[in-house]
Design goal:
38% of the residues lie in helices and 25% in strands. It has 561 residues and is an alpha/beta fold.
Length: 561
């Protein structure tokens, strides 16, 4: 590549542990050309975000450092610049959008002011000119009512809008390079598509180069000209985006592409990275005939749960003299779920899917309607009856770390619900059962006395699942329970959930904004929009022939690889 804008030459980044430096990114070499989008793909711990922080000069002093190699920007070595020189470079020439806009924006400052700060730091514009420029930036990133959002605080706007404010902030000084670190991870599939198209448009319009970092290979294929794949601190493959997709060379790249559920083929078991590394991929498929036979048996029984005309209304106070405004979060919803079934629940943020899940769990009482579980109306139960029913209806949360007590070992955390519901004779029996369950979810006896912080994200999710299945429930609500996981860990957890369903006869309500995952897991899919059921059908039929415009829009937004 002639005169690249950014060039990393044999860069090694090391972390300090117990007084010793150990390399976490090894001999990374790559270039970013003028007016190019380069995708960096890899899972947690692969070194992709650390590499981007090194480019920005944001490695925490004394903890991480570049121990070898150089980083050149526009022909100048920036790896040895002073903090003052780096400050001039940041925002001006190289800007960054972070993964989590809520924690990157200051909650106590209005959105417009936060973008203004950057411009007053790096330009000589007057106050009036700065305000005009911010409003025009908000228009450029397609924020609705730019004038209104200018005066709003971060908590008053949606996740997608917050991300657009971050992008406006990043492009304010017309940087030559924009680093986007997982900029769409927490967003709905439709908002994700909008952000990707927006970044592409901005890049074409301004001619800036983009370093796009993600763990989702199919997403990167939608935006990047070239891709480099990182695995455990090494760049294992790099090249033209299409080539890497159609003809991956490295085993890890092949595994990353295949671990994501396909929209065309229904595999019995998703391949994991380990399967690829051990050459143990099982390509067995579930045929439409097998699926149809399974469904005949499944729907021939009485429903386990019946939701009838359920409504959940929230009241927002409009002000001192204003009237209360009623907001229907769940609006006249009815459906049935059968024992052994997985019902997928999809829709954009705010559509009411988690509210509906909470109403079924009796964590948040429905305003109207009936919820019949084995013929008994849950909405009419006393507090004591609901408590004893908790054993049968359980939830697996989105964030396993915040749902585990950091002061309790995982063994005790799994035993705790058994003690509450008086399962088994004594703690000795409960301990034995806990070890059996740990083995079941791919952990072992040696994990019993460890604390949550000693585990990876995927392992913590397994502990969350172990805690749920300890009570041998009948119905489990999985609320975005794999959305924060890497692709290959996600594949392991989905396989585990299917295996447990087969062995224990569990019934799942599977809530997610990831439509490819929902299709893979579900027998039927229910699409929600603004509190109502938009459409409901057998999963494969719904994806092949969506009836409603809203469903078509959701499916069209799924990354295509």
């Amino acid at each position: 590549m002639n005169n690249p804008l950014l060039h990393l030459d044999n860069v090694t980044i090391s972390a300090k542990k117990d007084g010793q430096w150990a390399s976490i990114v090894k001999n990374a070499s790559f270039s970013l050309g003028q007016n190019e989008i380069l995708g960096i793909v890899g899972e947690s711990g692969s070194g992709k975000s650390v590499t981007s922080l090194a480019v920005m000069g944001l490695l925490p002093k004394g903890i991480l450092a570049i121990t070898e190699g150089t980083i050149e920007f526009d022909g100048r070595d920036i790896s040895a610049l002073s903090q003052k020189e780096l400050r001039n470079l940041r925002g001006n020439d190289i800007a960054m959008i972070f993964q989590e806009p809520m924690s990157s924006l200051n909650p106590s400052l209005k959105c417009g002011y936060q973008v203004e700060e950057i411009l007053s730091e790096h330009t000589n514009l007057s106050k009036k000119e700065i305000k005009e420029w911010v409003i025009s930036l908000f228009e450029k990133v397609k924020l609705p009512n730019p004038e209104k959002i200018y005066n709003r605080y971060p908590h008053e706007i949606s996740g997608g809008q917050k991300q657009r404010v971050m992008i406006a902030m990043a492009i304010a000084c017309k940087p030559k390079i924009l680093i986007a670190d997982e900029p769409t991870t927490a967003l709905d599939v439709t908002v994700q598509k909008e952000i990707i198209l927006l970044l592409k448009e901005l890049q074409q319009e301004t001619g800036m180069s983009i370093l796009f970092i993600s763990h989702d290979l199919s997403l990167v294929s939608e935006i990047a000209n070239r891709v480099l794949v990182m695995y455990r601190g090494d760049i294992v493959e790099q090249g033209d985006s299409q080539k890497i997709f159609t003809n991956p060379q490295h085993t890890y790249t092949k595994a990353l592409i295949s671990s994501r559920p396909s929209l065309d083929v229904r595999l019995k078991r998703l391949p994991t990275i380990q399967d690829y590394l051990n050459d143990a991929v099982n390509p067995e498929e579930i045929t439409p005939a097998q699926r149809s036979e399974d469904h005949k048996q499944l729907y021939g029984k009485q429903p386990l749960l019946e939701v009838i005309n359920v409504e959940k209304e929230y009241v927002s106070n409009a002000g001192l003299f204003g009237k209360d405004i009623k907001f229907p979060a769940v609006d006249d919803v009815s459906f049935k779920i059968y024992e052994g079934e997985t019902l997928g629940l999809v829709g954009e943020s705010g559509c009411g899917k988690s509210t509906l899940g909470n109403a079924i769990l009796q964590l948040d009482k429905a305003t109207a309607g009936k919820i019949l579980y084995k013929g008994k109306d849950l909405t009419k139960l006393s507090h004591k009856e609901v408590r004893s029913l908790r054993k049968e209806i359980q939830i697996i949360f989105q964030d396993p770390y915040s749902s585990l007590n950091p002061r309790i070992t995982v063994g005790k955390a799994i035993m705790e619900p058994m003690q509450v519901h008086k399962l088994y004779k004594n703690d000795k029996e409960r301990r034995a059962k806990t070890i059996e369950i740990l083995n079941r979810v791919g952990l072992g006896e040696d994990h019993f006395n460890r604390y949550p912080h000693e585990f990876s994200g995927g392992q913590r999710q397994r502990i969350g699942i172990a805690r749920t299945i300890a009570l041998q429930p009948k119905l489990i609500v999985c609320d975005e329970s794999v959305s924060a996981l890497d692709i290959s860990v996600q594949a392991q957890v989905l396989n585990l959930l299917n295996e447990l369903k087969e062995n224990f006869g569990f019934t799942y309500i599977f809530i997610s904004h990831d439509l490819a995952v929902v299709k893979y897991m579900s027998d039927q899919v229910l699409v929600m929009n603004k509190g109502k059921i938009e459409e409901m059908n057998e999963a494969d039929a719904l994806y092949a022939h969506p009836q409603k415009e809203y469903t078509k829009k959701l499916i069209a937004a799924i990354p295509s690889h």
